Amino acid sequence: MILLLGGTAETHQILAGLLSRALPVIVSTATPLGKKLLEEHLPPRVLSGGPVEVRCGRLDASGLVELIQKRGIRLVVDATHPYAGEVSRQALLACRETGITCLRFSRPRQEPGQYRLVYRVPDYLSAARRAGELGFRIFLTTGSKTVPIFAGELDPQRLIVRVLPDPQTIAGLLEIGIPARQIIAAQGPFSRELNLAMFRDWRADVVVSKQSGAAGGQEAKLAAARQLDLPVVLIERPPEIGPVQVFEDVAELLRTVQELYPDSE
Predict the structure, then answer these.
(1) Which of 21, 44, 85, 100 has minimal Cβ neighbours within 10 Å of its Cβ?
(2) Dist. CA 12–CA 39, nearest whole Å
(3) Where are the alpha helices (DSSP H) in 181-217?
């Protein structure tokens, strides 16, 4: 059995490749919404008694060890978000304890080009402080879990937040003071044109983004910001947690999985 830790758009591609090779997979997502979005990409026959099982809920190293031992996991594929470093760290610890291999898929890094209004920062707190200096109305595209950092540093009334359409997430944002009219609940990816319309309609003064690569819509956000002459605070990619074998190409990852796990159960 293979454990696939999901959380990115590439999870769907990796899962499709594993299933095409008739390899049994448990996919783990952090949230019920992530589980639902993943299941929507799978045909019903695959989920009903097929070679894949989808579970949700965050697991620390001890929880992963228990799952690995209980289900006979022989290989872990970590395809979580590049900024979810703690998840990758816990996965690596669990694999070390159980003596199994962990492979890491990391979407290719994308540099922001020569746009003169890109301000690179190392972390979310630095991003909040820099954005606060650059403009009043701050458009956040960094995910719901990061919003409390910005709301703790800046007046929540200044924040426009774009998050996944999850009721619990929206309720949490309202609790910390984000105005309902400034919550955009929508699932990406977003085109340049849609970003342009949102930045303009919500009268953004500055955009905050992760260095999330093409799959994360980085270039579409930068292109829209350039057109409106908006400054962009770009949170740089953290280093990979290691030592672990890292892949930036799905096909190469799948070839390695096949070599490590040549038989189906």
Answers:
(1) 44
(2) 10
(3) 192-201
